[in-house]
Amino acid sequence: MTATNLSICATFTFGQEGDETVSLDEHDPGCWSSGIVGVGELLGTRYGVSAPEAIKWLAPAVVTAQTMAEFPRDTATAIFGQNYFQAMRCGDMAAGIDLSVCDHGFNAGATTSVKLLQRILGFQGPDLDGWSGPQTIAALQSFNPFSYLRKLSAQSLMAAQAHVGVTADGKLGPVTIGAVQAWPERTFLTCCLLADAQLADYEGDAGWARYGHGWSNRVSARLQAALALIPKPAPDDASMAQEVAA
Predict the structure, then answer these.
(1) How confident is the model at residue 162 (pLDDT cuts 50, 70, 90)?
(2) Are 7 and 94 in contact (CB under 8 A)?
(3) Is 46 helix (H, G, I), strand (E, B) or coil?
(4) CB 54 within 8 Å of CB 71
(5) What are the boundaries of each domain within the chain?
(6) Which is nearest to 188 in space by CA: 215, 166, 218?
(7) What is the number of alpha carbons within 13 Å of residue 28 lying toward its C-beta?
(8) Exposed, middle or buried by CB within 10 Å (0-12, 13-18, 19+), for 206?
C-alpha cells in the first residue's frame, strides 16, 4: 500500500495545475459555477479544483470568484485526497501507478482514469465500470504487463529502456526484451501502458486542439514522476538483469 504517497501525488498534481495560480479560462468548464462553459458565473479554479467541486465541498457557504482566488491549499489537498486518491483506492496501488492514475483522474475525471486502467487489465462489458473496487485492485496486483511490451509507443518504450538501464532508442530489440524480462519488478511497464492510454484519451477529447500541447507534456511529466516513485532493485539484482540482457 502507498497511502504515504498522497502528499507526493498532490504536490505533483498541484504543480501541473499551476500551484497557487488562479485560472479564469473561460473555455474551461471547470471555471464556471455550473461546470458548463458560458453557464452560471465564471469563478475560476485554483490548484486545479473546479468551481463546481469547490461549491459542493464548501456548501452551504457561498462560493465567489474571491473564494476561488483565496482557495487554501489544505482544502485543495483534502479534496484531492478524498475525491481522488482515496476514491480511486490509489493507496492500494503500487508506487508509481498510484500517481499515474490519481493525477489523470484529477485532470480528466476519476471514472475516466479508472476505466483506462481497467481496459489495460482486460476488463470488458459491465466490468468496465470506472469503479476501483476489490476486483480492479486484485487484477492490478496480479497483472503481468510484459506481454504488452510490443504495444508501447516509442516514447514510452524509451522511458522503459531508461528505467532498466539500456540504450533509450525507442527500438524494441533483444537487449531491451532481455533486460525487461530479467528486471525484478514490472510496475514500470504498467505506468508506461497507462501513459499511452492516457495520451490517446486526451487526443480524443474535444479540447485537444486548444489544450493538447499541455496535456501531452503532462503525460510525459506524469510518467517520469511515476517511474521516479518506483523503488529500484538492489544493485546485485539490477546488475544481474543487465548481464542477462547482454
Answers:
(1) very high
(2) no
(3) strand
(4) yes
(5) 1-86, 94-246
(6) 166
(7) 20
(8) exposed
In DSSP notation, 154-220 reads HHHHHHHHHHHTS--SS---HHHHHHHHHSS--HHHHHHHHHHHHHHHHHTSTTHHHHHHHHHHHHH
Q: Identify the sign of the CA torsion 22, 95, 232, 107.
A: negative
Q: CB under 8 Å to 142, separation ≥6 — which residues?
A: none
pLDDT of residue 1: 42
Report the C-alpha dihedral over residues 90, 91, 93, 96, rounded to 10 degrees: 80
Model pLDDT for residues 31-80, shown as the tens digit of each residue: 999 999 999 999 999 999 999 999 999 999 999 999 999 999 999 999 99
89 half-sphere exposure, CB direction, 13 A CA radius: 15
Burial per residue of 45-79, b for 16 or more beta-carbon CB atoms within 10 angstroms, e otherwise? bbbbbbbbbbbebeeeeebebebbeebebeebbeb
Radius of gyration of the chain (CA): 19
Q: Poorest-confidence range of 69-78, 212-221, 228-237?
A: 228-237
Q: Which three cell numbers stand for residue 207?
A: 479540447
- SS3 label, residue 144: coil
Place of cell 495545475: 17
- Strand runs labelled E in the chain: 22-23, 45-46
Phi-psi region of 47 (alpha: psi -120 to 50; beta: other; left: phi over 0): left
Peptide bond into 60 cis (omega under 30): yes
| DSSP code for 83 | I
Taking phi over 0 as left and psi of -120 to 50 as alpha, with beta for the rest, 8 belongs to alpha
